[in-house]
Design goal:
With 309 residues, the chain is α+β, with helices and mostly antiparallel strands. The chain folds into three domains: 4-86, Uridine Diphospho-n-acetylenolpyruvylglucosamine Reductase, domain 2 (2-Layer Sandwich); 94-219, Uridine Diphospho-n-acetylenolpyruvylglucosamine Reductase, domain 3, CATH 3.30.465.10; 239-302, UDP-N-acetylenolpyruvoylglucosamine reductase, C-terminal domain (Uridine Diphospho-n-acetylenolpyruvylglucosamine Reductase, domain 1, Alpha-Beta Complex). 27% of the residues lie in helices and 26% in strands. It is built from seven helices and 20 strands. It has helices at 4-13, 47-59, 109-118, 134-139, 202-219, 239-245, 274-292; strands at residues 20-25, 37-42, 64-67, 73-74, 80-86, 94-97, 100-104, 121-122, 143-144, 147-148, 153-160, 165-170, 175-177, 180-182, 188-196, 198-199, 252-253, 256-258, 266-268, 301-302. The protein has a five-stranded antiparallel sheet. Strands 1-2-5-3 form a four-stranded mixed sheet.
């Protein structure tokens, strides 16, 4: 384990104290509003700074955790030992070429949808109310209903910090799957992507966005602190259906509760801890397995917990 005080002295000696901050509370950077402090935390303002910070972390053997807007992650109450790099609202440039949109990984999806709408480009409406970043959405193959990012991503730019190279992958060089993507490397940061959209009348795009939001509002607890769907849907039935039929809908542990609107969401009623949420997740898994013989697979990323990425 590294010496935290020595690492901080090295950060100062490398003139990185403006970029890398110590002891940052992760509850300020997760949609569940949970988690202890990250030993070190950085929101890089551009690609060169990102590479510099990653190089520092690698040279000092610091564990590295890359996150987007923190909308689908769990962080332990004990915090994170290492460096958290958050790619959000920076590295977010947008360029257009006919029906193609090239966007940085740090742009928030609602902002990207708004920009596409202004250009009368359709295909992203399903993401208008997903609060994550483009980079995070690509990693998790974000979707709503029958539409997903996999249908429109044409090219991905990433920094493979294992090899030290920036790579551009064409569509045939990566493969999306349910709630994920295979990029052919392990240590990487997505920098941006090119999306192929279609032209449409602005009013039609806005109407579709409104309809998607109405569907989401009816079926999901949009006014509560959540991290999106907690479990992946197994082949047999949706996770929400299994949780509800097993009798776990509305289940409470501490200030964490299984949503009464959609059983695959866990809400923080205000003061839930990461421990409350994790115990509730484990309880749901056991209840569903006992009722149906199906072990639910977690969709949430457990950042900083041994055994999880």
């Amino acid at each position: 384990m590294y010496n935290k005080n020595q690492i901080w002295r090295d950060i100062i000696s490398c003139s990185l104290e403006r970029e890398i901050k110590p002891d940052v509370p992760m509850k300020c950077h997760t949609s569940w509003k949970i988690g202890g402090n990250a030993d070190f935390f950085c929101i890089p303002s551009h690609q060169d700074q990102l590479k510099e910070v990653l190089s520092f972390a690698l040279n000092h053997s610091l564990p590295i955790y890359i996150i987007g807007n923190g909308t689908n992650i769990w962080v332990p109450d004990e915090g994170i030992k290492g460096l958290v790099i958050k790619i959000v609202r920076t590295i977010d440039k947008v360029e257009y070429s006919a029906k193609m949109v090239k966007a940085g990984a740090g742009i928030l999806l609602p902002a990207l949808v708004k920009k596409a709408t202004e250009k009368e480009l359709s295909g992203l409406e399903f993401a208008a109310h997903i609060p994550g970043t483009l980079g995070g959405a690509i990693i998790n193959n974000a979707s709503f209903g029958s539409e997903s990012l996999s249908e429109i991503v044409n090219e991905i730019s990433l920094f493979d910090y294992g090899s030290g190279y920036i790579k551009t992958l064409k569509k045939e060089q990566f493969s999306f799957h349910y709630r994920g993507i295979d990029l052919g490397c392990e240590k990487f940061v997505i920098l941006g992507a090119s999306l192929i959209l279609s032209t449409s009348d602005r009013e039609n795009i806005l109407l579709k966005i409104k309809n998607v939001y109405e569907q989401r509002k009816k079926s999901q607890p949009v006014n509560f602190l959540t991290a999106g769907c907690v479990f992946k849907n197994p082949e047999e039935k949706s996770a929400g259906y299994l949780i509800e039929k097993a009798g776990a809908k509305g289940l409470v542990l501490g200030d964490a509760q299984v949503s009464t609107k959609h059983a695959n969401f866990i809400i923080n009623r205000g003061q839930a801890t990461a421990g409350d949420i994790l115990q509730l997740i484990e309880k749901i898994e056991n209840i569903v397995e006992k009722a149906f013989g199906i072990r639910l697979e977690r969709e949430i990323d457990f950042v900083g917990l041994p055994g999880y990425r």
